[in-house]
Amino acid sequence: MSAIRHALNTKRADDFAAWYQEVISAADMAEESGVRGCMVIKPWGYGIWERIQRLMDDRIKAAGVQNCYFPIFIPLANFTREAEHVEGFAKEMAVVTHHRLIADGKGGLIPDPAAKLEEPLVVRPTSETIIGDAMARWIQSWRDLPLLTNQWANVVRWEMRTRMFLRTSEFLWQEGHTAHEGRDDARAETLRALEMYRACAEDDLAMPVIAGEKPENERFPGAVETWSIEAMMQDGKALQAGTSHYLGTNFAHAAGIKYQDREGTETLCHTTSWGVSTRLVGGIIMTHGDDDGLRVPPKIAPHQIVILPMLRDKPEDEPLLTYCEEVRAALAALSALGEPVRVLLDKRPGKAAAKRWDWVRKGAPVIIEVGSRDMEGGKLAVLRRDAIWNLETGKSAFTYPQREDFVAGAADLLAEIQQALYTEAAERRDANITRGVTTMDEVAAHFADDVKYPGWLEVKWAKPTGAVLDKVVEQLKALKLTLRNVSRDAEAADGTCIFTGEPAVERVLVARAY
Questions:
Q1: Would you say residue 384 lies in a domain?
Q2: Where is the Aminoacyl-transfer RNA synthetases class-II family profile domain positioned along the sequence (predicted)?
């Protein structure tokens, strides 16, 4: 077996955090903006987000939810109505206090003291309160329910420690907000959104997740129940990849969201909210990336197939480009994974090998190189990004099919790559969830400093609340651990709670997390 020379300087096994940052740079996904905690999302990174957005938006609309848009500025008074909500976000809020600047006499600008706002405006950290005001205006009768809304927007949460895509002061997301007649209908919507997120993560992003309810201490501020999808990254840490909240009547009470029921009685609505963000892009990097860069699942790749003609800046380039254009057109006429194939003919000047590695680092699912000899033989040189190395020779694992044969099998190839990436990630996750740990000493040993990638534990617990739960959280915090969620598919629990010694009622996941 020959040594492989990978495209990145940093290997995952050596420094996972540095590897993550290098992938973002090498794949040309994003860069620092010069504004603290904020990033510039570059075309390839934003193209991946657009694909996620498109597929998610189709799922949202298929459920009868309608898109709206609400202001980015929210009156501070809105947050004070729901005490638990404001407490949960107070430390992260960016606040606008003035509406005009004036010269300071030293060549700079300062807020004009005369332009102080009567009431400060919070830059949107989430929209429950302002959307609640709108719902209170729009809902009068049971005939107006359910009210199903969503918005695609940016939000601001003033993070102290930031990391591109995973935790930034400004990020992009969708937030669904719905109002219902009763608890059962609202909880059904909460779980519908959770299942939508699970399906999108697994079917579109090829990212296996565990869907379940968050413990009380991990609930969204003001929620009655919070549900999440949790994904395991290659370093064994958990990433909360989406959340869905049943809010009961808490926000309806604060905002006055009421309706006249079928008997004519004024009744509070039950509401929900649910969201995913550009954090999913970070999850894709850490789920599918390798030591050569990013690997993008075909469903969310801006370009699924990239064709690279080996141009020489000579007259013979013209027939080669014609040949490549014919291949591009034939592929673009196909449908794969339920949509037209997205194929790019990269005509940029430069050596094909250099451009190949550019697309390898970006993670295009299929890369095709075409030289004059390939053209003369009616062939293509094809490289699968999910399996680019011949492990015996240490060289790129090109195959050389006839042009017509490749076109005929291209749709199946993309589906095969999509499934292969999911299977690889699911097998890695399942192999790194440990069960059977019964004491806190065993928990500490499992997550000891000399254990590089400990993965997750699934342990039995009694679902404690209040001060008892606070004590559990502190125990875990000392080990840099968190409670993730209780899987909807977990086996019933027996025996005793690992934390309290009380009879166990369910199984909860424990992990280090992003």
A1: yes
A2: 45-297
Identify whether 175 is part of a domain: yes
Distance CA 70, CA 127 (A): 8
Alpha carbon distance 200, 207 (integer Å): 9
Rounded to 10 degrees, the C-alpha dihedral 3/455/220/153 comes to 10
Helix, strand, or coil here: 437? coil
- 85 falls in which pLDDT band (50, 70, 90)? low
- Residue 113 included in any domain: no
Q: What is the CA radius of gyration of the chain?
A: 26
Condensed to tens digits (0 to 9), the pLDDT of residues 381-439 reads 999 999 999 988 889 999 999 999 999 999 999 999 999 999 999 999 999 999 999 99
Residues 284 and 381 in one domain: no
Q: Are 44 and 296 in contact (CB under 8 A)?
A: no
Are the CB atoms for 428 and 286 separated by under 8 Å?
Answer: no
Q: Which of 267, 261, 253 is nearest to 132 (CA)?
A: 253
Strand ranges inside 321-427, DSSP E: 335-336, 339-340, 343-345, 366-370, 381-384, 389-390, 395-396
What separation in angstroms does the CA of 470 have from each of 180, 240, 473, 500? 32, 21, 5, 12
**Would you call 3 helix, strand, or coil by DSSP?**
coil
Tell me the residue length of the chain. 514
Q: How many domains does the chain have?
A: 3
Same domain, yes or no: 324 and 402: yes
One-letter amino acid of 228 = S
Domain that holds residue 498: 433-511
265 & 137 share domain: yes
Question: φ, ψ for residue 108 (rounded to 5)?
Answer: -115, -170
pLDDT, tens digit, for every residue of 198-251?
Answer: 999 999 999 999 999 999 999 999 999 999 999 999 999 999 999 999 999 999
Distance from C-alpha of 16 to C-alpha of 234, rounded to nearest angstrom = 9
Q: Return the CATH number at 309.
A: 3.40.50.800
